[in-house]
Amino acid sequence: ICKDGFSDGLCKKFADMGITGIMIGEEDGGLGMGHAEAGIVLEEIGRNLTPSPFLTTAIAGVEALNAGSADLRAKYFPGILSGETVLALAIDEGKKHNPASIKMQAERSGNGFRLNGRKDFVIHGTSADMLIVAAQTGNGLTLFAVDKDTAGLSQEAVRLVDSAMASHASFDNVEVTADAVIGEVDQGQAVLDRLLRAGRVGSAAEMVGVGQGSMDMTVDYLKQRKQFGQLIGEFQALQHRTAHLYSEMEIARAAVMKAQQLLDEGSDGAEMFVSVAKSKAGRACNLSVREGVQMHGGIGMTDEYDIGFYMKRQRVLAEMFGDTDYHADRLARMSGY
Apex CA 85: angle with CA 79 and CA 87, to 5°? Predict the structure, then answer.
């Protein structure tokens, strides 16, 4: 089993096609595209179950660095563009996504900061060249770029249900210079929000791909499997369930596309639609993988068919950047409930 949970060679192929720079501005050597274009790539990654750090590195990580200094961009963007640099997001500090409860402290030390605390489920943490770390700095939140070999940083690797790798990261008097600050000191909430919006709509797009891939595989199976002398796809009960699944997937895709468009336009309504997209994609993708396993019957519970791998990937994506319930609650709060 790959220790990284993804292929370095595949990252290089992504770079050869130029898509690792899809969210990097043209002035920094990238394509200068937006969330809508990135979503096309992410949907295909989901459809093909491609193991890749593309979401954390080229989407969420790049969005954070886009708000950083020219020096930070010059330090990390060339490696991202070449497919050699992997970024990880050290945001959450518990079992569930809850960025409002960040407790890690970063105290001033000389011309920089000293970080102490712990981050959980840092996706690709042990494979990353740099971790984007969110910490409290007295009068607000600040984001830091912490290189993997920085003294005091230790990580415990864990394998997720879809075989991707994550880590529990501990920071014991980790010293960073002021140059590691992404954005401004105490003003990191805006940068974090930018990172989270990109990650949320990106993971929603990938879930649409996972759901679509699962549905395509299931429909193909319905057209081949025979029971009682006829194709199971001819049974009206399964036809009804498949039609319902198709409509749910189309609604989810539309919600994701709307969120992407609003983000690219810089609309004030983007924040709400990002949560709509993450919540709806989570529900639709979950329905797709469950229906897929059920319609495959007993064989769907084995690794002989790939349908089970779609279910595993859906479970990880559902938790990343907040699950369906988190975003449903967030929507209710934004609506005044």
Answer: 130
